[in-house]
Design brief:
globular, 46% helix, two-stranded parallel sheet, binds S-adenosyl-L-homocysteine, ten-stranded parallel sheet
């Protein structure tokens, strides 16, 4: 299924679209994305903000700046926010993030907050959860340990990645993960196994998107085919939707980079979440994970109008009231409670 193209591919996407409509609905949930810092201790071979890229101006938004951005997100009627950054484990970073969560929760008690700040100690995940983050995104990038080793330096490990996902699950987070699609050394068989991994890990949410080279990384000259990446990216969404009908799946920015209609194509292929960018315009250019990542200066309200119109045009409905917790998570939790009561 991952290899399909042409009319068979269109059929696959239609099937996933209808499965999503049946198991969830035709509603699209919004997550205001705030990339609050590009400072990173890791040196992932594919990533533009890896620590050894000396050509990046590093920034870190203060809790107050992040809160002001949350005001803009909320002002646009969005009820969920994603705070993403490079990875750091120093105390100053953790304390600052806990403070950010606390002040956002204080002003917006009902806002869904997703964190995406990399691998942490179990106790740190617990601190974030206690401060009000209820969802966490940590992509496993690939489910193949050897492949993982070819994308990352030796001080990073696949096992620690998976251990972190387990900690997140045990802490009570809605757990989101995903992979990079069409990344160097990856085969279609790898991708098929990735789907099985996501299913067997019983994830609640998924963010995955095509790899796009960045000029200042070891993979700068890696040959890559944009059309193949786009097709694989869309087929991955569809196949995962068939495998996991009630999880949240994001139509990611990388799809949008490959095609001007990438975001809508992702929704048509079975995704149900979009993550419009709310990072302040001054920082957008500095959060270049890959070349040509959209960093326009169009004000968010204008972007939102266009986005909502495009969603309506493909027969879906922008949902602005319900904050869209993962249905899979809600069901999983209800079942766990029922089990406990039985005992
Ligand atoms: N530090 C956080 C956020 C990382 S950036 C964390 O570890 O979760 C978010 C995602 O961007 C990464 O997980 C990776 O999958 C993706 N990414 C990085 N470089 C990329 C590239 N060159 N092309 C496509 N996606 C990339």
């Amino acid at each position: 299924m991952l290899r399909l193209s042409g009319s068979e591919q269109a059929e696959l996407h239609r099937m996933a679209f209808s499965v999503r409509n049946k198991s969830l609905s035709n509603r699209v949930y919004f997550r205001g994305l705030v990339e609050f810092s590009n400072i990173c201790v890791n040196d992932c071979f594919y990533c533009g903000i890896r620590k050894s890229n000396g050509n990046v101006r590093r920034y870190e938004m203060s809790p107050e700046e992040i809160l002001a951005t949350a005001d803009i997100v909320a002002g646009n009627g969005i009820t969920s926010i994603v705070l993403q950054s490079g990875e750091r484990r120093d105390r100053r970073f953790i304390d600052s993030l806990v403070k950010t969560l606390t002040i956002i929760k204080d002003r917006y008690p009902h806002m869904g907050i997703t964190l995406s700040a990399g691998e942490q100690e179990r106790s740190v995940f617990e601190e974030f959860f206690a401060a009000g983050a209820e969802r966490y995104l940590l992509r496993v990038e690939t489910s193949d340990e050897e492949h993982y080793g070819r994308l990352h330096p030796p001080d990073m490990s696949f096992r620690n990645r998976v251990r972190c996902l387990e900690y997140l699950r045990e802490t009570g987070f809605q757990v989101g993960t995903g992979v990079m699609i069409n990344s160097p050394y990856q085969t279609v068989e790898n991708l098929a196994r990735d789907i099985m991994f996501l299913k067997s890990f019983d994830i609640d949410m998924c963010g995955m998107g095509p790899f796009i080279p960045h000029g200042e990384t070891p993979f700068a000259r890696y040959e890559y085919d944009a059309e193949k990446s786009l097709n694989l990216g869309l087929n991955m969404i569809s196949v995962l939707r068939l495998a996991m009908p009630d999880i949240n799946i994001a139509s990611t920015t990388a799809l949008e980079t490959l095609s001007s209609e990438g975001r809508e194509l992702g929704l048509l292929a079975g995704a149900n979440v979009v993550m419009p960018q709310f990072s302040p315009a001054v920082n957008r250019r500095e959060y270049m994970l890959y070349d040509n990542k959209p960093a326009g200066e169009t004000p968010p309200d204008e972007l939102m109008d266009t986005l909502k119109r495009k969603i309506n045009a493909i027969g879906m409905v922008p949902e602005m009231e319900d904050r869209g917790d993962s249905r899979h998570f809600i069901t999983r939790k209800a079942m766990a409670t029922a089990d406990k009561n039985k005992i």
